[in-house]
């Protein structure tokens, strides 16, 4: 039985830019809590998290890792998230389930990266308090003061250091503790052991000044404390410490710590702060939800009915599918039956586990606010809500960013199509940030992901888990055909087969239509030359020709078509005759109307450090991009541009190369535009070769 009080739970996600040291921070926290006796190494693949086959191929594992150490009278539910922006969705899922606070890790050498800014914004948008941790203070050329200044510039003046490095760089082992106003010296033997001494000389002056500034900052966050500060000239230590928690919850105070995770320096003090002042589930007692009858409702933490949401599902070798969840209300226990409100089915809760990487501890139950995992649910997937059947509710699911990279999936062996389809559906259920669809126009299965690494990981899982042989290829682009001038044509379809024949004559006028207007079909027949009953038949023939394409096999669009004249036969005219005549009349008119090709144009936003602007703009220009403008967002530049979709294949990989992994972009369809003449001629010649090869 899990008996930890809800108020003693500390759920938090460790997030940040790639290579900031998140996994090593989690490793150090596990050692400080006594879960492990010796720290592993990311470089050697010996950390607690390095147990899954997918972790062996990359130093930034593409899945969150959960740890549940206890200590300092608290239970910590730690979710260590991947750093690559390809896997931002994992951070979003972690925010959704932890929804308590985030530990944002910044590398002391590299400073604030695009990934830092992105996860910070995501946490802020969700109202989640944040702690900043400047890691790797033991590395050469660390820039603590610059990082602090950049954090304040980008995240606000409420960012405040609760400790500062006394001897940064190689040999780093001393920090000035602002709360206690002392000098903390860590033992050379490691394992987080330290001694505390009063700060003296310039160090005392600095820590005293910072302590005074902290009192003022906390006083400003509360009117009662501010009045007392002015009346008495300060706050007592008890008032200061009581005010820290409230100010942290409202993000009127953003604590910043300096540490070295690899040498376990400063991590113990960080855990002390989390234990004393960090958020518990009781700081957010209700969560918005929806039910079928009353619409929007709130689920209270202390409600009697169980409400659980799965924030991640993934397959564990020799263990089956594991579902990670958070309990938002009530208690759940092994053997309990819960209702999946999205899929309308009953799930029986099997054995419940608490995890520390590969190690799993079985528990009989979990209470509201806690996080755990369960295996072998029948049909419950990421984002699903489990609740009491008598009180069904649905919690909102995580909104993931739009995919930025697309590829066509090609099967290399016949007979594997069903396994591929089942595998893609399963992987999407586990990771909704990965999407796929079968494009009937282009006759391809297109897979879409958050970046090249995300795409590679998904395909590797597809091959390994479902034993299929697939490759990735450049997806075809959905070009369009249209016309530049009006034209007309008349086509007579006449066929005698011995019995009843076929006869229809159709005269069409066509003209360019507004962009994105599709095909507009009208009739202006006069007299009784053609029975109006055949008008839909002609339109079906025209639409069939448009779908098939006329000059290069792409769909025809933005054309107005007027069926203005024709002839029929009292015996031989029928539906199919007018369909055929309409089809060929449109094709003949189209060929006379100066046909041309249109290409899809995407609107993109590229967020990069200032020093990368020139390289990125040059690359966009080489891709026939039209730069719309450059905006400033804190320490980053945001380039807005329009680029042909054909030029954006695997653009995220090139952007990462140009910016050293510090750039990210988003893209979405904007409009169709006429293709340059030289490119159009190449496309037409290629289409002609394909038709000739058939």
UniProtKB/TrEMBL annotation:
Pfam families, alphabetized: EF-G_D2, EFG_C, EFG_III, EFG_IV, GTP_EFTU
Cross-referenced PROSITE patterns: G_TR_2
Segment forming the signal sequence: none
SUPFAM superfamilies attached to this UniProt entry: EF-G C-terminal domain-like, P-loop containing nucleoside triphosphate hydrolases, Ribosomal protein S5 domain 2-like, Translation proteins
BP term (GO), one: ribosome disassembly
Record domain Tr-type G: where: 7-282
Keyword annotations: Elongation factor, GTP-binding, Nucleotide-binding, Protein biosynthesis
Gene Ontology MF term list: GTP binding; GTPase activity; translation elongation factor activity
Entry function: Catalyzes the GTP-dependent ribosomal translocation step during translation elongation. During this step, the ribosome changes from the pre-translocational (PRE) to the post-translocational (POST) state as the newly formed A-site-bound peptidyl-tRNA and P-site-bound deacylated tRNA move to the P and E sites, respectively. Catalyzes the coordinated movement of the two tRNA molecules, the mRNA and conformational changes in the ribosome.
Protein name: Elongation factor G
Source organism of the structure: Chthoniobacter flavus Ellin428
């Amino acid at each position: 039985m899990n008996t930890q009080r809800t108020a003693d739970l500390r759920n938090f996600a460790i997030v940040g830019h790639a290579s900031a040291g998140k996994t090593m921070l989690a490793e150090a926290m596990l050692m400080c809590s006594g879960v492990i006796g010796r720290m592993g190494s990311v470089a050697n693949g010996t950390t607690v998290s390095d147990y899954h086959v997918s972790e062996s191929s990359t130093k930034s594992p593409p899945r969150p890792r959960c740890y549940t150490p206890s200590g300092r009278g608290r239970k910590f539910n730690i979710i260590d998230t991947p750093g690559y922006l390809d896997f931002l969705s994992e951070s979003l899922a972690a925010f959704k389930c932890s929804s308590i606070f985030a530990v944002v890790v910044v590398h002391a050498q590299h400073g604030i990266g695009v990934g830092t800014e992105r996860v910070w914004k995501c946490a802020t948008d969700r109202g989640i308090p944040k702690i900043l941790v400047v890691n790797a203070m033991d590395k050469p050329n660390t820039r603590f003061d610059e990082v602090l200044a950049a954090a304040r510039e980008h995240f606000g003046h409420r960012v405040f250091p609760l400790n500062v490095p006394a001897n940064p760089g190689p040999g780093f082992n001393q920090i000035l503790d602002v709360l206690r106003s002392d000098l903390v010296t860590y033992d050379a033997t490691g394992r987080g052991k330290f001694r505390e001494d009063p700060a003296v000389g310039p160090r005392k002056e600095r820590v005293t000044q910072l302590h005074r500034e902290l009192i003022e900052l906390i006083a400003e966050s509360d009117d009662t404390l501010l009045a007392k500060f002015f009346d008495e000239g300060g706050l007592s230590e008890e008032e200061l410490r009581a005010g820290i928690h409230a100010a942290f919850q409202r993000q009127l105070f953003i604590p910043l710590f300096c540490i070295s995770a690899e040498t376990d320096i400063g991590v113990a003090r960080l855990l002390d702060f989390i234990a004393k002042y960090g958020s518990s589930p009781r700081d957010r007692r209700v969560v918005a939800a929806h039910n079928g009858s009353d619409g929007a409702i709130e689920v209270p933490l202390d409600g009697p009915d169980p409400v659980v949401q799965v924030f991640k599902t993934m397959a564990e070798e020799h263990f089956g599918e594991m579902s990670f969840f958070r309990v938002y209300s009530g208690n759940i226990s092994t053997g309990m039956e819960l209702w999946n409100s999205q899929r309308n089915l009953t799930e029986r809760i099997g054995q419940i586990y608490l995890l520390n990487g590969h190690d799993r501890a079985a528990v009989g139950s979990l209470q509201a606010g806690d996080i755990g995992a369960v295996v072998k649910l029948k049909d419950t997937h990421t984002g699903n809500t489990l609740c009491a059947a008598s009180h069904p509710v649905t919690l909102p699911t995580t909104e993931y960013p739009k995919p930025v990279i697309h590829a066509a999936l090609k099967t290399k062996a016949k007979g594997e199509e069903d396994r591929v389809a089942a595998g893609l559906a399963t992987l999407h259920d586990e990771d909704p940030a990965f999407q796929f669809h079968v494009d009937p126009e282009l006759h391809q299965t297109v897979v879409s992901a958050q970046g090249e690494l995300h795409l590679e990981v998904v395909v590797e899982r597809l091959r390994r888990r479902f034993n299929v042989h697939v490759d990735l290829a450049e997806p075809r682009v959905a070009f369009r055909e249209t016309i530049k001038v009006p034209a007309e044509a008349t086509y007579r379809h006449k066929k005698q087969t011995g019995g009843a024949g076929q006869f229809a004559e159709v005269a069409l006028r066509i003209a360019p239509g507004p962009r994105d207007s599709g095909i507009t079909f009208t009739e202006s027949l006069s007299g009784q030359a053609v029975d109006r009953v055949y008008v839909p038949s002609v339109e079906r023939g025209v639409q069939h020709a448009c779908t098939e394409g006329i000059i290069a096999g792409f769909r025809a669009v933005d054309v107005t078509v007027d069926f203005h004249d024709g002839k029929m036969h009292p015996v031989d005219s029928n539906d199919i005759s007018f369909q055929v005549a309409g089809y060929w009349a449109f094709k003949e008119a189209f060929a006379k109307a100066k046909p041309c090709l249109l290409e899809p144009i995407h609107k993109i936003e590229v967020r990069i450090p200032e020093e990368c602007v020139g390289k990125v703009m040059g690359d966009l220009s080489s891709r026939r991009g039209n730069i719309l403008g450059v905006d400033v967002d804190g320490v980053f530049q945001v380039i807005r541009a329009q680029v042909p979709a054909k030029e954006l294949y695997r653009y995220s990989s090139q952007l990462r190369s140009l910016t050293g992994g510090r750039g990210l972009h988003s893209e979405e369809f904007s409009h169709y535009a006429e293709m340059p003449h030289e490119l159009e001629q190449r496309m037409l010649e290629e289409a002609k070769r394909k038709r000739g090869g058939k």
